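Sync notes, pocket subgroup
Present: LS, DG
LS reminded everyone that the earlier model was apo-only. Rerun requested with protoporphyrin IX containing FE included. Inputs:
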Amino acid sequence: MDNVFDSVELPSGGMYTSFGTYSATELLDIVGRLSELTGTSVHDLVMAYGRYLFGRFKVLYPAMFEGVTCALDFIESVETHIHVEVRKLYPDAELPSLHAERSQDGSLTVTYRSSRPLAVVAKALITGCIEHFGGHYDLACQDDEDAEGPLTLFLVTRKAEDPA
Ligand code: HEM
């Protein structure tokens, strides 16, 4: 950590608190430098971080998991409940839009839109969520663009060998 922080120019000075607001560029610079130092790709570092982070949610915010038994229900609740509560606590938070839609075949499509290039964070958290609830789903991702701008589609489908 010292090696990374000593070699990246951080306007905040590298001091972070949960109530502060920081440029996402700092995060990208830190993870980019960590990638250079470790030889692990940015994608793989962010995936490891996000999967770890999902486990921390469970420890830190158990109330959000109460009564939820399925990964799809949890993912749906991010846009409708969890990030809504986050916004109340942290009005300056820059949250992504994570619009979720169920298909008749039981799969879930999540459309990620954000002013920041953090789709891999979403991918990692969704992966962590699937793993947490038993790993019954596959995840596919695709970057796309429409009239509203860039987006990433996440398709969460039940594993073939794992019927509901
Ligand atoms: C599957 C579950 C979740 C997904 C996919 C998800 C997705 C994301 C993503 C991708 C971001 C980065 C911002 C961006 O892309 O613009 C974000 C930000 C954030 N999320 Fe979530 N999230 C999830 C669950 C949660 C939970 C459980 C909490 C709280 C306990 C939470 C709290 C936050 C907070 C505080 C931020 C930072 C906002 C800021 O300060 O700018 N998220 N979320």
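DG: The chain has five helices and four strands.
LS: The first helix runs from residue 2 to 6.
Action: DG to write up.
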